[in-house]
Amino acid sequence: MSALVAELSVPQFTTDGDGKATAVRLDAVGYMALLVRANVTDPALWPPGMERGAEALARVRQIEADCIAQHGEFDWEKLPDNVQDEYDGFSALLDSIQDTGERIPLDDVLRELGHDATP
User: Fold this and answer.
1) In a designed cystine with 30, which of 3, 9, 89, 109 is the match (CB 3.0 to 4.6 A)?
2) DSSP designation for 35
């Protein structure tokens, strides 16, 4: 698994005697990452206190869809300045609620990309 790819936390499954899953447990950050990946914009499905994430996700996806409809692809640089700011703000919010606190050293990132990390 690439260190550059943010992964969901590993869910824990409870199974019955036949090995069939009967329940799943996922930490809050993993759950919110799953909501973002699945484009869930219903605030009722977001954890208490995090409902604004649903609004942010809906707006980010709307900005992307509008840009694609107008330009044939999403290109942040083609957005008006005020929409770029709005997009960045909502994206930062979504990033923060999915933040696991894990930090990857630059040397590891460069090595993953096939670059020599030594100066």
Assistant:
1) 9
2) H
Per the CB < 8 A criterion, the answer to whether 54 and 41 are in contact is yes
Q: What is the pTM of this model?
A: 0.73
Q: Tens digit of pLDDT for each residue in 15-38?
A: 999 999 999 998 888 899 899 999
Tell me how far apart the alpha carbons of residues 27 and 39 are, in angstroms, rounded to a whole number: 18
Q: For tokens 């960045």, what's the residue?
A: 88
Distance between CA atoms of residues 19 and 17, nearest Å: 5
- Cβ neighbours for 33, distance < 8 A, ≥ 6 positions apart: 6, 8, 9, 98
Of 62, 59, 41, 38, give the one whose Cα is nearest residue 50. 41
Alpha-carbon distance of 51 to 62, in angstroms, equals 17
Q: What stretches of the chain show up as alpha helix (H) in DSSP?
A: 28-37, 52-71, 81-97, 106-112
